[in-house]
Design brief:
single chain; mainly alpha; Tetracycline Repressor, domain 2
Amino acid sequence: MPTPTLHNSPQIFSEQVLSRLQSLRQLGRLELSMMVALSALAGYLFAGGLWQMQAFMVTFGVGLLAAGCSALNQWQEQDLDSRMERTQQRPLLTGKLSPAAALVLASLSISCGSLLLSSLPESIPLLLGLLSVIWYNAIYTPLKRRTPFAAIPGAICGALPPLIGWTAAGGALITQKSLILAGTLFVWQIPHTWLLLCHYRDDLKRSGLPNIFQAIPTQRLLRINNYWLTSLFLCYLLFPLFYFIKSQPLIYLFITGLFMIFIAIFKRAADTNNPESIMQTFHLTNISMALLFTILILDRLLI
């Protein structure tokens, strides 16, 4: 058996490093964790927070909590992930990371995120951060095994990160602005989750989890989902309606972007038998939320 030469040793090393980084990206679901962190930053700036070190501490703290929750979730659901094609390539199932390593990484990530939030002047962001971890991993994750409608109470997980940012900037927890922001994230979470379930409904059957399609047929669930999407876009319109966006050009940009996304989504709404259309609607729904975050962050930059 040939041994690696000195010439190709750096290449082998770089491939190993890239493979390990890819495993960490999958374990922490980097893209989703970044969006959660972005929602916390948007909440921080929406409350009038300044571009200073505290903003980055909130963003990275929440991002680390989200990554830690994801890693812990994959440790908790190894049996479910092994039955679904969508999750069979996750690092714990491929053997790239051991369950013990995943648990250690989850603990480190949650601990570091909590440490960053604990260094803020107010204690509420840390308490909300810990509530997010408990709600996601100790309530929502087990609840999925008990009811097909776990996505509705689970949507609270999506509403908490912007509130972490909001309170970190000194905002009162319960105000009109904070409730509209958190409520919009709550409403977004339902179509986000249900569209994913519709696309991977065969995986859901294989998982052994309570099947929402046994309670509600797919076509009917998608019609109900369209009402959630309509509610989501009405929530978006509250931001320019109440002048939560100060820049006039950004208001026009936001409304135009929403209109284009809304039309694109409802053009696909009639094609309920096409898995590709369902996935396109899923991505467009995520883009609509990313648009809101971007507008809120840019609006703060332009003040």
